[in-house]
Amino acid sequence: MEDRLRSLIASIEPVDCHLDEKIQAHLDNLTKPKGSLGRLEELAKRYALIKDSTWPELPAGKSVVVFAADHGVTEEGVSAFPKEVTFQMVRNFLAGGAGINVLARHAGAKVKVVDIGVDHDFPDLENLISRKVAYGTRNMVRQPALTTKEAVDAILAGADIAKAEFPEGTGLLATGEMGIGNTTAASAITAVLCARSPREVTGRGTGIAEDAYRHKIKVIEKALENRQPDPENPLDVLAKVGGLEIAGICGLILGAASRKIPVVIDGFISTAGAVVAKALVPHVTDYLFAGHLSVEAGHKAQMEFLGLRPLLDLDMRLGEGTGAVLAMGLIEAGIKIYREMATFDGARVSPGNEEPVRS
Amino acid sequence: MEDRLRSLIASIEPVDCHLDEKIQAHLDNLTKPKGSLGRLEELAKRYALIKDSTWPELPAGKSVVVFAADHGVTEEGVSAFPKEVTFQMVRNFLAGGAGINVLARHAGAKVKVVDIGVDHDFPDLENLISRKVAYGTRNMVRQPALTTKEAVDAILAGADIAKAEFPEGTGLLATGEMGIGNTTAASAITAVLCARSPREVTGRGTGIAEDAYRHKIKVIEKALENRQPDPENPLDVLAKVGGLEIAGICGLILGAASRKIPVVIDGFISTAGAVVAKALVPHVTDYLFAGHLSVEAGHKAQMEFLGLRPLLDLDMRLGEGTGAVLAMGLIEAGIKIYREMATFDGARVSPGNEEPVRS
Fold first, then answer.
1. HSE value, Cβ hemisphere, 13 Å, CA-based, for A226
2. CATH for A3-57+338-347?
3. ipTM > 0.90?
């Protein structure tokens, strides 16, 4: 394994839980029945533990990083959209008109767009972070999608972005992506690393009809048969049947975790990146929040693999980071509960009891 | 039935869906695969239909109305908290330190607190809306909780608030409540109007232990046996085993619907108010959004009765309106998607197809 990747992996520490009791005691002293704010309390606690603080600040500098790349496997006819939509949507992101732009503004988060592998030469565009590793992947049915070096370069590009673009003390990041054909790559990765059949973890992506869906499953089966990715070697899987944006997301997660910045992951593609990250560093999930449950068939299997429970379930399947930024608002709500609610003493409210009170 | 209630009911029109196709066409022309923003698209469409507009404004004047009242049934020992917590929490709401204050600020919503039946004389407090119908309910095990006149007065007080406190064009309201003992009343109402056994729709409220929980079910069974509320007569049910805050919420919903203001309902108690409202005016649900699914056992049965699907599922059971204001952010996100996303034409993005594209 490349030295830089090895040292990145070594730099990620598990979250230290020594403040757990103090944080829980504060939550239990707020003017509400114990635990009655459910997952908002869980979010506050996890955030405080990651920040290693009994008094975490509200997340500063919230941002979503959208990695864009193309996929050679679109030659096989796996998507409802033509390949040029990848670069067209990058322009749309930069112009502020895509779903992720709207929802990031709603969440108070910035959108950073990264060309990590789009099959298009962009002019020098303001706001586009150019980290192109290749002009897309090769067709995984016919040859490995990436060389191992390309896969590692894309991971390191993602990790670099986590370090170069975000100052010390950044509160919260989210992952997003754009890449026509990338549900095919995400399904292939998920099948191998989560040990499921392609059929179980393949969905309709942007919305293909029944025949096309059956064809897509066959394409993935053929790619796995031809490539024989090694389930014990996440880099081999990522290279042979993955994608550059998926590798970039994996790298962003690793880079953020190495700096103790929590990351909200989005839907099926983003989570494929998280699956690779966990396969490389099991405790990286300490730093992850699962933004939402995607409609895409394989997302549940990924969540089980990661041991995460999604925050939202709104029948979404757009990607781009849309579900992740929407969930940022819930994480912030949890932190505000922790910081802003009155305590029983402070508000002179009588505390409760498991035994009923006759009054 | 009282004349004013009769005319309130008559003034509520079903939502007119003649703009459905135009609204859907706009959603389908936004730069995303059709339907890929799932429930955000559904929220935008429902909101636009309620406002009878193909270009709905962002909701102005968002507010949560928190009705507070006491319950005579606390004599039976059904709650983990003493009765005085009702007025103590009203003070906490007015001081801005409760969960609902924190989450309403997060959502950009105002908190209006209504004393509709607290067993306490408040001094003249700024921001407290005083509409006290009685000093709490009577103990439903021994006598009817309310007279029919008190129940109707409380409904009309809620409807008055919808009209007096909110100007024309108010975008979105939410319901909230506070009342030690009110899960007992909500379970009794739900058992009768949703035709379930008390056991099925009774939970642990603020968090009572196993023995107390079994006792609470027996209290509800005894109250229903002693009172014999008529399932065909929602006012009879509300009076005999209900609560003043539940009646107020029912009235707020009816008053808002009569002015075409959508209402986000909160958890188990708020939804009991909505169940009574629907039993009085079946199409009132056209104006309702279900904020979240509460942990409280009977909430699912209420949702089935209303035909609504909750937006959030975060293991919450605090009430106060907390789940409702949290969901306001999702409804706003949907409206922003509708208003702010670029169209395929405008952004020069190639539209998709159910048939796959080989590229």
1. 16
2. 1.10.1610.10
3. yes
